[in-house]
Sequence to fold (64 residues):
Amino acid sequence: MKVSADTGVCVSSGMCVMHAPEVFDQREDDAVVVVLLAEPPAEQRDAVRQAVLGCPSGALAIED
Fold:
């Protein structure tokens, strides 16, 4: 699994961080998503999928 984020469409809701804080963070200045682990470990995959599904702007993507 590989995770990516389109920071140009991110609306800074923080849903990704709520679902997978080990994988996502937000920038200090504008709260736009930051991917901490582009290839998360197996134990984080369900949380990452929930984060992608819960993203209101569709800024997150998974490539299997």
The chain is about 25% helix and 20% strand.
